[in-house]
Amino acid sequence: MNIGLVLSGGGARGAAHIGVIKALEEQGIFPTHIAGTSSGAIVGGLYAAGVSWPEILNFFKTITIFSTYRYARNKPGFLNSANFYDDLKTFFPIDNFDALKKTLFVTAANIIDGSSKIFSQGQVIKPIIASASFPGVFTPTEINGNYYVDGGTLNNFPVEPLKTICTKIIGVYVNPLKEVSINDLKHSYSVIERAYKIKVAAESMNKFPECDLVITPQELVDYATFDMNNIDTIFNLGYTNTKKILEKNTDLFVS
């Protein structure tokens, strides 16, 4: 049985994906195909490379994002995306999709022509970095003469490449929409930000019916995109939510 795993973007909230993987493996469920965006591309890429969930969790807890040596100079962004290459190279000794142990699809947005790109061939590290390059914070990543940023800009729930090749699909969405009141929207930028979040959430949730199982821990609304101080808590939210959902769907993955 081909089991697909869709991992959305969400910054630090992507640590919940690792908890999901732990819970799935405890139930004997091992995804064979992965499609990831942003932090979901990082988790999915490492998992596809054969890295165990404890190692992926440790990576999230020890990676230093805002170190001074990562600062960009004379580039459009605060942090130089290229400076993350060596951090990932450790886990991808052969920088190629073909060397992975699971089939992987990674989304990124072309910042020049506005198209969405799904990477599944050739070098794998740069597409993962590009997919996780939050616009304005990280510099765009150059791949074959094109420049890419965060995949979540255009596709934060990339179920598309899995639909025709997987028997079952599990979707994990770690960007639940927070409830607000009109009093929370006091400034023009807060209204703009809210409108963008609604758009991204709606586009993703419209694709939930294409999955056999969807995991979206609502408690994640309490954690910010760059909340790297609560990785363990976020991981546990992914784990406990998945366990509860699997208990209610025990027959879903019986072949």
Write structural notes for this entry.
The chain is α/β, with parallel strands linked by helices. It has helices spanning 15-26, 39-48, 53-62, 85-89, 125-131, 188-205, 231-247, and strands at 3-7, 33-37, 103-110, 116-119, 141-143, 146-150, 168-172, 213-215. It has seven helices and eight strands, in the order E-H-E-H-H-H-E-E-H-E-E-E-H-E-H. The mean pLDDT is 91.
Keyword list:
15% strand, alpha/beta
Summarize the structure.
The chain has seven helices and eight strands; from the N terminus they run βαβαααββαβββαβα. The chain has helices spanning 15-26, 39-48, 53-62, 85-89, 125-131, 188-205, 231-247; strands at 3-7, 33-37, 103-110, 116-119, 141-143, 146-150, 168-172, 213-215. The chain is globular and about 55 Å long.
| Beta-strand fraction estimate | 5-15%
Computed Rg: 17 Å
Q: Helical amount among residues, as a percent range? A: 25-40%
Number of strands: 8
What distance separates the N and C termini? 7 Å
Mean pLDDT: 91
Q: Helical segment tally?
A: 7
Report the biggest beta sheet as strand number plus sense, adding barrel if it closes.
8 strands, mixed
Q: What class, by secondary structure content?
A: alpha/beta
Shape: globular
Could you give the order of the helices and strands?
EHEHHHEEHEEEHEH
Unreliable segments of 5+ consecutive residues: none
